[in-house]
Amino acid sequence: MTTVLAWLRGLFAVGMLAGFYVVAFTLLAADAALVCFMLWGIVELPSQGGNWALVVGSSIPAASALVYGIATVSRTEEPPSDAVFLRRADAPGLWRLVEELAGQLRTRPPSRIYLTSQANASVSEDARLLGFAVGERTMNLGVPLLLWLKPVELRAVLCHELGHYAGRHTQFGAITYRGAASLRSTLFRLRMTARSDEARIGYAWLFQAAIGAYAWVYLRLSLAVRRRQELEADAEAAAAVGPEVTAQALRAVHALGITWAGFESRYLRPVQRLGFVPEDVFEAFAAMVGDPPVRERMAELRAHPLELDRSPLDSHPPLARRLALIEAMPARPGGTVVEEGLLVADPSPVPRVQRKMLGEFGHSATALPRTAWADLAAEAFAIELASLLLDAASDSRAIARPTLATVLGLLERGEQTELIRRLTDAPEPEEQLAEALYALTGQALAGAGRARWVLSWTQGYLLDCPQDPRGRLDDLVAAAARDKGAVPALRGELARLGLDIEAPVVLALRTVAAPAGRTTARRRTRSAPDLVVEELARQRTVAKVTMGAVIVTGMVWGIALLGSDSSQPYGQSYRPGLPTAAASRYTPWPLSTDHLSAPSYTARLPVPIITEPILRPTPSLYFRIHFVVRGDTLSALACEYGTTVEDLQERNDMGKRTDLTVGQMLSVPAEGEGSGIVATDCR
C-alpha cells in the first residue's frame, strides 16, 4: 500500500510540475508570437508599425524573468550554506545510531550527513528520472539539537526524519519542493520586474497574474500532501520510540528553536554588525540556555507550545494538531532505552559550522571571550537607546551637544509628548521613553565609572551600580518618564551618586574602547538580501539586452520606412529621372511615358455599372494626375481644381495629413468633376 501511495503521489508531483511548464511555455509562445507579428509589421507595413518599441521593450524583461524561473526547476537542491559534511570517522556513534534506526524502520539510511547551525533537522533525496529512480540520500542535523536534546529526544527526531524515507516521501518530494521554489522564484522576479516598469506598461503583470494563479493552486495542493507526510513521519517515530517520547521531542525542538532564533536575532547578529562575535557561539548559547529565567521560559514553551505568525503556506501541520494525534496513540509497552554514548568523536566539524554561519553574514568580526562579548553586547544595546534619546532631545538651534541635563529639563517642562514623538513610533511609546531614559542614565553613570552594564538574556542589559544595591534608581527613572513632578527626585539621587548630569555622555564601548553603532534601532538601514541584489544585477543585464534589441529593431524599422513612400497608399515605384503614375484602385491602367510632357492631364475611365444604391458618396472616377511642384499646398490645389482639402485627402488616402513632397503624384478631379464645394478663402 505504501508503494502504491508513493507512486500516486509521485505522479501527482510530476503532473503538477508539468502544469507549470505548460503555463509558462504558453505565456512565452504568446509573447513570442506577438513580437514576431510586430516585427513582420514594421518590415512589411513600416508606416503602420504601431508601438513596436513598447511591445519589444516590455516583452523581453517579462519573458526573461519567466525563463529564469523555468530554468530553476531542474536545479539540484544544494545543502544549506553553513552545512559541513560529517565523515563517519568524525562521528562513528552518530552514524551507527542513524543506521540502527533506519534498520528498525526498514529503510535505507542516508549516504551523507551534514551538520548545520539551525535548531532543526531535515532529509532529502536526489530526484533521478523525475523521482522514479533511487537517488542519494542526505540528512541535515542542527548542532543545537545534537548538543541540547536528550538522547531519547534525539532518537525520536532521527526516527521522524527516517520515517520520511520509509514512507518514500523524499523520492518525489524533491520535485514538489523544487517546483514550489521555482514558482516562488519566478513570482518574485516578475514582481520586481513589474515594479521596475513603473514608467511604462509592461507584460510582467500579466505573466505574474497567470503564474500567481497557478502557484496558488500548486502550493495548496502540494502542501496538503506534504502536511500529510509529516503526520505519517510522526506516526513512524511514535511506533519506533513511543508516542510519549515523540511528543516530548516535538515540544523540546519547538522550545529550543524559538530560543536559538531569539539568541541569533537579538544578540549574535546585532553585535556582529558592530564587528564582534563570541569565540564560541555555541558556548554563548549554552550560557543563555543555562540562565534560570530562560530555562523557565523554555519550560513554559514545552508545556504550552505557541506558534506565532504561522504562515498559511507552512509545509508542516499546526504543532497542536500533531501533538494531539501523537498523544492520542496507544502507549507503547515499556522498554529500556539505552543512553547513547559519545556521538561526535571529533569536535572539529562544530567550529567549521560556526565559521560558515558567521561568514555567510558577510561581515568580518573580532572574536572575543564569552564574558567580554556579553559585556560588550549589554553596553552596545544601552548606548544605542541612549544615543536615540539624545538625538530626540537635540535642538537644531543649539550648538552644544545635548546631555542628560537636557533631557531632564525637557521632562521637567512637561515636553514628554514631543520627546516621545521624536523618539519612537512603536507601540506603548511611554514604556519606550522610560527604557531610553534608563539607558541614558545608566550610560552616564557607566561613563563616569559609577556603574557597569551586564548582559541579561531576558531583558537585554542591566545596570550594576554598587552604590544603589536596592535598585532605587530604576523606580525613580520610571517615575520621571511618566510625571514631570518626579524629575527633581531623580536629580537628587543622581547627585547623591556623584554624577554630573551636565557632563557629556560617553557613547563608546568601554569594553573595547570603540564607538558603538546602531544595533536594532528603528532608523537603521539594512542591506538588501542577496536574492534582491542578485535579481537587481540580473535586471540590469536584461535592461542592456532590451535596449540593444530596441535599437536594432529601430534601425530595421527606419530602413524599412526609408525604403517606402508613406505619402502614397498604393505602393508606387519610381523610374530613374522620371516618375510613373499610380494605378487606379478600381482597375489597372498603363500610362505611356510619351503623354507625360505636360505637368497634368486628364484620363477618362469607363464608369462601372452600379445596381445597388450607394449609401455614402464616393470619389469621382473621372480624375487626372497632378505632379507636386515646389510651393504647392493642399489648400491651393483645392482652389485650383474646384474642390476642398478634405476631398483631396480622401481621394489620395492621406487621412488628416497635409504635407506634400516635390514630385509626388496626386489624384485631382477632372475638369468639371469637382465636388462643387469651394472654400471661401478661394474667392
Structural topology:
Elements: H1 2-44, H2 52-71, E1 84-85, H3 92-104, E2 112-116, E3 121-125, E4 137-142, H4 143-148, H5 151-166, H6 169-196, H7 204-241, H8 243-274, E5 276-278, H9 281-289, H10 292-303, H11 319-327, H12 349-359, E6 366-368, H13 370-393, H14 404-412, H15 416-423, H16 429-447, E7 452-456, E8 460-464, H17 472-482, H18 487-496, E9 508-509, E10 514-515, H19 530-562, E11 574-575, E12 578-579, E13 600-603, E14 623-627, H20 634-640, H21 645-651, E15 665-669
Helix pairs in contact: 1-2, 1-6, 1-7, 1-19, 2-6, 2-19, 3-5, 5-7, 5-8, 6-7, 7-8, 8-9, 8-10, 8-11, 13-15, 13-16, 15-16, 16-17, 17-18, 20-21
Please tell me about this protein's structure.
With 683 residues, the protein is α+β, with helices and mostly antiparallel strands. Helices cover 53% and strands 8% of the residues. The strands form 6 sheets. The protein has a 4-stranded mixed β-sheet with strand order 1-2-4-3. The model is unreliable at 520-527 and 566-621 (pLDDT under 50).
Which labels suit this protein?
alpha+beta; four-stranded mixed beta sheet; flat; three-stranded antiparallel beta sheet
DSSP, total strands: 15
Give the biggest beta sheet: 4 strands, mixed
**Poorly predicted runs:** 520-527, 566-621
Protein structure class: alpha+beta
Counted by DSSP, the helix tally is 21
Level of helix content?
40-55%
Output the strand order for the largest sheet: 1-2-4-3
Which word captures the global form?
Answer: flat
Q: Which oligomeric form is depicted?
A: single chain
Hey, roughly how much beta strand do the residues contain?
5-15%
Distance between the termini: 100 Å
Query: What would the average pLDDT be, to the nearest integer?
Result: 79
Q: How many whole angstroms does the radius of gyration measure?
A: 40 Å
